[in-house]
Amino acid sequence: MRIAASLIEEKGQEYSELPAESSSKKSSSKKNRKRQKKAAAAAMTPPNVVQKLFETCKEVFANGGPGYVPPPPDVERLRMVLDGMKPADVGLTQDMPHFKKTKGFPLITYLHLYECNNFSIGIFCLPPSGVIPLHNHPGMTVFSKLLFGSMHIKSYDWATDVPRITQENLNPTHCQPPGIRLAKVQVDSVFTDPCNTSILYPAAGGNMHCFTALTSCAVLDVLGPPYNDAAGRHCTYYQEFPYASFSGDEESMPKEEERDAYWWLEEKEKIENLVVVGKPYGGPRIVET
Predict the structure, then answer these.
(1) Do residues 81 and 56 make contact, with C-beta atoms less than 8 angstroms apart?
(2) Per residue in 1-22, is it b (16+ CB within 10 Å) or e — as a string?
């Protein structure tokens, strides 16, 4: 005890002999400590990748509008942001109710993140066997990032490498539904996370696509510009028919070995067994800048 007391006395004497710290130095020291605390807190807080996505979209689609295709460097910049995104970045986990298989037809859940005149951001949550039927994206450039799960994607563009099919060169023994049109398959594959972001354009890349969930899935979509019924950008659904369903003039049609890539698409006014419900988005918020 005497040794401890002696050390305290000696230290006290030594400290008392040190020059008093100036008020300006004390203030500077406090500021430095505050900065260090803020830096440490920032290092422990996950970055708001959603905010980065929003700001990138805002720049990429700044001059956007119907039919607008961003320059390749901007497409690549936005794709890189999306490629790096994970379910946790948007507050999703695979055990959420959105992804549970229920009795009856699978329900699709939509989480709305943001929308303006130039672009929109949202997430589709699909339980196993959930289907988003074949539909189009008129005048849009669309980025789709599979956040988790495994799904089959089939996409088409209108066929431009063969003459437009008319009633005159269709086989008269077949009944042609009104408004039917020939399309060419662009993608017909299974995608499993992790995988690259899919990109489609107004007239290329598979503007009309269908999603079928093989497992529970979450797909983050960026649309530029978004759907707008008043502006004529409404979502149209299609029914598919194999090429052989409506045989045309053999000389103007694709070669036989290529015909599996061509399908007939017919517009559908009503889609049965499709239910999409909106739910609140619970991930990091977007702050408009």
Answers:
(1) yes
(2) eeeeeeeeeeeeeeeeeeeeee
Tokens of 121: 């951001």
pLDDT in tens, 170-217: 554 455 566 788 999 999 999 999 999 999 999 999 999 999 999 999
- Model's pTM, two decimal places? 0.78
Question: Which helix (H) or strand (E) is 118 found in, with range?
Answer: none
247 contacts 171 by C-beta, under 8 angstroms: yes
pLDDT digits (tens, 9 = 90+) for 43-95: 334 579 999 999 999 999 999 889 999 999 999 999 999 999 999 999 999 99
Interior angle at CA 137, CA 213 and CA 74, nearest 5: 95
Contact 60, 78 (CB under 8 A): yes
Q: What does the alpha-carbon distance between residue 121 and residue 123 come to, in Å, rounded to a whole number?
A: 7
Written as six digits, the tokens of 257 are: 């070995």
